[in-house]
Design goal:
With 538 residues, this protein is an alpha+beta fold. Helices cover 27% and strands 25% of the residues. Belongs to the peptidase S12 family.
C-alpha cells in the first residue's frame, strides 16, 4: 500500500505553548530562540531531509517550559501535529522504569515494606521467576546489573501479543532460564529490552499492583501528566485515540509513506510502550533534572550515577565531536559534551523515534518525539542544535550534526556487514546446489523461549513470517552450501534488509529435524554458550 508524498508544516500558531513562573519577567534566550522563525525554518528543512512527517518538541530552562509541534500527525487526513499529539516513545520509557525502581529504594521508599536495593540480587525479590541459564548469574545478578545492561544477556526479541503465545512481563522473566548468555556478568555492556520487562515485573511484585497503575498513582497524577498512558489500549480507553500520531515507514522503492498501527506490547512493559506528549514528558524530565518528588533526594543520589561503560573500544571510532564516551546509569546514558554533563536516552520502534535529556548544570531539558524512520536521528540532531544554543557555542565551532549522523549511520551499516562471516557475504552464492526439495525443511519448529515458528515456502524460497514478534520481522532463507547451511535475510519492511545472519538445519535421513539461527548477531559471543538459537521440528 502506498502512502502519501512527504509534506510538512509548522504549527507556529496553535502548536506552540510556553509557560513560565509568575516571577519570570522575560523568557530565557533559549526559549526565545526555540520560538523564533529561524528555528522554525531549520526544523522544516531538517524534517524534509530526514523524511519525518511529525515532530513535537518540548524544552525546559530554569522556570520556563515551552513546546512546539510541526508537520502532520496523520498524512492521509492531513491532521496537524500539535503539542497535544500522543507518540509511542519506545526506549525513552526506560527512564520512567528506572525511576519506578528508584522510588522503591529501601533508603527512602514511600511504599512501606516493599522496597528494593539496587545492589541486591534480583532473585532475592523474584525467587521463583528470575532464573537465568547459569546458576551463578541467577545468584549474583543485581537490580542495577539488569538495568545497566551488564547481565550478560544478549538483546533477544520477545514474542509479540499477536502471536499464539503472547508474553507479559512475568512470562518474559520466566523465559530467561531458556536463553543462552553472551558474556560473563558485568564484563560487557549489551543493550537489550528483556531485563527492563523484568524490572517492571519486579515493581508489580513488590507493590502488588499493575505497572500501569503504579505509574499512574506515583508519577502521572502527581506530576500532572494527564496525557501519558501505558500501552495504546489505555489511550483508546481514555477516548484519546484521535490524538495519537500515526507511525510511518517510508517505502525505499517509491519514497511514499506507509501508515502502521501502534502496537499493544505487554511484553515490552518497562522497556517501552509509554504513550505521551512532549508537553507531558518534559514534566518528568524536569522533575528528574531538579530532583523533585515523588522520588526523594536520597533516592536520586542512589540512582543517577553510572555503573557501566558503553564499550569504549567501539565508541572511540565513532565518538561525536567534543564528546566523551557514554556511561550508563539505570535508564540514562551519561556523557560529556564540551565538558558539560548530559543525561539522555533515545528511543525507536516501528514508525516512531525519540530522545530526551537534560543538562543539570544549566537546568536545561528536552523531549523530542517524531514519526518516520529518520525520527530518532532527527531528534538527536535537534537536541544537539538546542544544546549548542544553550552553551552559546560560536557558529563556526558548531559541528555539522547532519554530517555526523549520516557518517554514523554509514558506519553502522558497514559494521553490520562485517559481522557476517566471509562465507555469508556472498549471499545466495552457495558452493553446492540445493538438492533437497524445500518440503524437507518446511513445517513448525519449537523453542522453549521463542515458542513456535513456521518455515514455509514463499517466492520459491524458504520463509519465516515473524511479524507477530515484539520487533516484527520477515526472514528469508537462502541456501549457501551443503544441504544445511543457509543465510537468513531479515527485513523489517518489504525490500528493506536490516541484517543477514547465519542459520542452519540439522538433518536426519535428508529431512530437517531442527533449525538454528543467530538471533543476536550484534553480539560478540566469544565462545560463550551457543551461538545459534535452536528450534526443534514439531
Amino acid at each position: 500500500m502506498d502512502g502519501l508524498p512527504f509534506r510538512t508544516r509548522s504549527e507556529a500558531d496553535h502548536g506552540t505553548h510556553t509557560s513560565a513562573a509568575a516571577h519570570s519577567i522575560m523568557p530565557s534566550p533559549i526559549i526565545n530562540y526555540f520560538n523564533s522563525s529561524a528555528f522554525t525554518s531549520k526544523i522544516e528543512i531538517l524534517m524534509q531531509h530526514w523524511h519525518v512527517p511529525a515532530l513535537s518538541i518540548a524544552i525546559t530552562h530554569g522556570d520556563d517550559i515551552s513546546a512546539r509541534a510541526f508537520g502532520y500527525a496523520n498524512l492521509e487526513s492531513a491532521v496537524p501535529c500539535t503539542t497535544d499529539t500522543i507518540f509511542d516513545i519506545a526506549d525513552v520509557s526506560k527512564s520512567l522504569t528506572a525511576g519506578s525502581v528508584a522510588l522503591l529504594d529501601i533508603r527512602g521508599c514511600p511504599v512501606m515494606g516493599n522496597g528494593v536495593d539496587w545492589s541486591s540480587p534480583v532473585s532475592k525479590y523474584l525467587p521463583d521467576d528470575f532464573v537465568m541459564a547459569k546458576r551463578s548469574y541467577t545468584k549474583d545478578a543485581t537490580v542495577e546489573d539488569i538495568m545497566c545492561h551488564q547481565s550478560g544477556l544478549p538483546g533477544y526479541a520477545s514474542m509479540g501479543i499477536a502471536s499464539e503465545d503472547s508474553d507479559d512481563s512475568r512470562s518474559v522473566t520466566r523465559k530467561l532460564r531458556n536463553l543462552a548468555l553472551a558474556a560473563p556478568l558485568r564484563s560487557k555492556f549489551i543493550y537489550g529490552h528483556l531485563m527492563y520487562a523484568v524490572a517492571a515485573h519486579l515493581v508489580e511484585t513488590r507493590t502488588n499492583s499493575s505497572f500501569g497503575d503504579f505509574l499512574e498513582k506515583w508519577f502521572f497524577r502527581p506530576l500532572n501528566m494527564s496525557s501519558t498512558y501505558s500501552q495504546p489500549d489505555a489511550v483508546r480507553s481514555a477516548g484519546q485515540q484521535a490524538r495519537m500520531a500515526t507511525p510511518y515507514r517510508r517505502c525505499p522503492r517509491t519514497g511514499f509513506f506507509v501508515p502502521l498501527q501502534p502496537l499493544q506490547r505487554p511484553e515490552f512493559q518497562g522497556a517501552g510502550s509509554i504513550f505521551t506528549t512532549a508537553s507531558d514528558y518534559i514534566l518528568w524530565v524536569r522533575a528528574v533534572m531538579l530532583q523533585q518528588p515523588p522520588i526523594t533526594k536520597l533516592g536520586y543520589s542512589c540512582w543517577l550515577w553510572p555503573r557501566s561503560l558503553q564499550n569504549p573500544e567501539d565508541l572511540l571510532i565513532q565518538l561525536h565531536p567534543q564528546t566523551s564516551w557514554s556511561m550508563y546509569a539505570p535508564g540514562w546514558e551519561i556523557r560529556f559534551y564540551r565538558g558539560v554533563q548530559i543525561f539522555k536516552h533515545d528511543g525507536s520502534t516501528l514508525g516512531f523515534g525519540s530522545t530526551h535529556g537534560f543538562l543539570p548544570q544549566y537546568k536545561f531539558g528536552t523531549v523530542i518525539l517524531g514519526t518516520g524512520d529518520g525520527a530518532k536521528d532527527l531528534a538527536n540532531i535537534v537536541q544537539h542544535i538546542l544544546i549548542d544554543e544553550v552553551l552559546a557555542v560560536p557558529d563556526e565551532q558548531r559541528p555539522d550534526w547532519i554530517k555526523v549522523y549520516k557518517e554514523a549511520d554509514a558506519y553502522d551499516l558497514e559494521e553490520a556487514a562485517s559481522l557476517i562471516g566471509p562465507e555469508y557475504r556472498g549471499y545466495g552464492s552457495g558452493e553446492e546446489l540445493q538438492l533437497l526439495t524445500l518440503d524437507a525443511y518446511t513445517g513448525e519448529y519449537w523453542n522453549a523461549a521463542y515458542k513456535t515458528i513456521r518455515i514455509s515456502v514463499k517466492d520459491g524460497g524458504l520463509f519465516i513470517d515473524a511479524t507477530d514478534r515484539s520487533m516484527p520481522i520477515s526472514i528469508y532463507l537462502e541456501h549457501v552450501w551443503d544441504q544445511y547451511c543457509y543465510s537468513a535475510r531479515i527485513e523489517t519492511f518489504p525490500g528493506q534488509c536490516v541484517d543477514i545472519v547465519r542459520s542452519q538445519f540439522e538433518l536426519q535421513d535428508d529431512v530437517a529435524v531442527a533449525f538454528g539461527i543467530h538471533l543476536a548477531p550484534d553480539q560478540d559471543w566469544n565462545g560463550c554458550d551457543e551461538e545459534l538459537v535452536w528450534f526443534t521440528r514439531v
